[in-house]
Design a protein that fits this description.
The protein is α+β, with helices and mostly antiparallel strands. Helix content is 23%, strand content 31%. It has a single domain, classed as Riboflavin kinase-like (Elongation Factor Tu (Ef-tu), domain 3, Beta Barrel). The protein has a 6-stranded antiparallel sheet with strand order 2-1-6-3-4-5, covered by helices on one side. The chain binds flavin mononucleotide.
């Protein structure tokens, strides 16, 4: 377990690979708003809860780092909400409560192996968030809408 970490902000457009190349739609957050938080945290895959102002609270698994597979020059925060949404929600307020860490960031020999690993991360997050110690955070006031 890690010290729970709260991050919030509007959803911005990422590099556009998430949905198109990987089939994994990630909701990107502006990393420069969190540079202090980011520099303090190890790159890697984390999990937790995601609150969307008008839609509710969902499980999420998140990548923090440089995405070595894509050679990014900027550290990014890319939460993948484990829920099927019918439309994009760019601009909406996203509230994240990060409660656990899965693994360090890695490079992969192929796109297929990267995608397979991300799906495995998703399954690990799904299961972990059902455990009472992590499930309890779903009701945290910081995730609730201010509406
Ligand atoms: N990228 C890597 O290069 N290495 C990783 O180990 C890695 N793990 C990830 C784990 C999760 C749970 C998620 C959601 C993404 C991960 N990625 C990793 C990042 C993907 O490469 C990234 O989502 C992709 O570049 C899409 O970015 P975009 O939405 O900005 O287009």
């Amino acid at each position: 377990p890690i010290e729970p970490l709260y991050i919030g902000g509007p959803v911005i457009k990422g590099f556009g690979r998430g949905s198109k190349v990987l089939g994994i739609p990630t909701a990107n957050l502006a990393a420069h708003d969190f540079s202090a938080i980011l520099s303090e945290h190890t790159s890697g895959v984390y999990f937790g809860w995601a609150g969307l102002s008008t839609r509710g609270v969902f499980k999420m698994v998140m990548s923090v780092g440089w995405n070595p597979y894509f050679d990014n020059t900027e550290k990014t925060i890319e939460p993948w909400l484990l829920h099927k949404f019918d439309e994009d929600f760019y601009g909406e307020e996203l509230r994240l409560l990060v409660v656990g860490y899965i693994r360090p960031e890695a490079n992969f020999p192929s796109l297929e192996s990267l995608i397979a690993r991300i799906h495995e991360d998703g399954k690990i997050a799904e299961k972990a968030l059902d455990l009472p110690i992590y499930a309890a955070y779903k009701n945290s006031p910081c995730l609730a809408s201010s509406l």
